[in-house]
Amino acid sequence: MNISGRKAVVLGGTSGIGLATVQALEHAGAHVVAVSRSEKNRLEAAKTVGDGVSFRGADVLDRKALEALFLDEAPFDILVSAATGGARAAGPFLEMDLDAFQASFRKLWGYTNSVRLAARHMAEDGAIVLVSGYPARKPSLGAAAISTVGNAVEGFARAIAVELAPRRINVVSPGIIDTPMHTTPAEVRNQLLEAATKRMPISRLGQADEIARAILFLIESDFTTGATLDVDGGARLA
Ligand SMILES: NC(=O)c1ccc[n+]([C@@H]2O[C@H](COP(=O)([O-])OP(=O)(O)OC[C@H]3O[C@@H](n4cnc5c(N)ncnc54)[C@H](OP(=O)(O)O)[C@@H]3O)[C@@H](O)[C@H]2O)c1
């Protein structure tokens, strides 16, 4: 797919990986609609992009709002979702609050809502990209919830790729990326992230634009569907 002149909707497009993707798509000549819940985030993000990007408010868990948004923006060619959907549970599974474990699946429900409601408005040669995360295939103590959700996201894309064809759906699996998702105070955050990346083959934090480049690769790559692309500095091997 040649991205230039295409229309893209990016859910979670006002921060981190989603915002970097919005910027990269605009740079490649797409008309982009960036979506998130908070107006404050949208106003901040608007300062970092040009006229090729418009902003809309919607929660990916609100099907009515999503349906209205997609109908309004139809037809479009590209759908990216990097919306986290809400908080994820961390800690040992055997001790964790099971409601918090279940709530971690908001990311998956956001993705399933978005794909289901957007697909009918997308071009036949359209492309969808979702974001999982390296814990899906590199489980570690305390990461049972995000690991399970990440596997579900990757499995969902594989499960529906045949049904969606000739539209394509793929997943990018990032490593630890320097984005506002990591909300702990700066000094603690930097120490934690440094410790977490130390043993990885590429021992540094990833940057949001490195994930955005992989997302654009999957959009452009007409012969790829149902795939997961690891862009994790080798985190899944460490
Ligand atoms: N950063 C990492 O280290 C890392 C690693 C592996 C995987 N990932 C995955 O990569 C994706 C993007 O993460 P990020 O680090 O870029 O996060 P981020 O900087 O926190 O950005 C998340 C974006 O999603 C939007 N959002 C969250 N919940 C939403 C909802 N219910 N409806 C609509 N928009 C929503 C947020 O805006 P509003 O708050 O305004 O809605 C924001 O624009 C996520 O799926 C995350 O799990 C991240």
Which properties best describe this structure?
single chain; binds NADP nicotinamide-adenine-dinucleotide phosphate; 7 strands; 41% helix; Rossmann fold; 238 residues; alpha/beta
Describe the structure.
This protein is α/β, with parallel strands linked by helices. The protein has a single domain (7-183, 209-231), classed as NAD(P)-binding Rossmann-like Domain (Rossmann fold). The chain is built from eight helices and seven strands; from the N terminus they run βαβαβαβααβαβααβ. The protein has helices at 16-27, 39-46, 63-73, 98-103, 106-119, 144-164, 186-197, 208-220; strands at 7-11, 31-36, 53-57, 76-81, 122-131, 168-174, 228-231. A seven-stranded parallel sheet has the order 3-2-1-4-5-6-7, sandwiched between helices. α5 (106-119) packs parallel to α6 (144-164). The longest helix is centred in the middle third of the chain and has 21 residues, at 144-164. The model has no long low-confidence stretch (mean pLDDT 96). The chain binds NADP nicotinamide-adenine-dinucleotide phosphate (NAP). NADP nicotinamide-adenine-dinucleotide phosphate binds next to α1 and α5.
CATH topology: Rossmann fold
Q: How many domain units? A: 1
Helices and strands, in order, run as EHEHEHEHHEHEHHE
Residue ranges: pLDDT <50 for 5 or more in a row?
none
Report a brief summary of the structure.
With 238 residues, the chain is of the alpha/beta class. The chain is built from 8 helices and 7 strands.
Topology record:
Blueprint: E1 7-11, H1 16-27, E2 31-36, H2 39-46, E3 53-57, H3 63-73, E4 76-81, H4 98-103, H5 106-119, E5 122-131, H6 144-164, E6 168-174, H7 186-197, H8 208-220, E7 228-231
Parallel strand pairs: 1-2, 1-4, 2-3, 4-5, 5-6, 6-7
The chain binds NADP nicotinamide-adenine-dinucleotide phosphate.
NADP nicotinamide-adenine-dinucleotide phosphate is lined by residues 11-12, 14-18, 36-38, 41, 59-61, 82-86, 107, 110, 131, 133, 174, 176-177, 179-181.
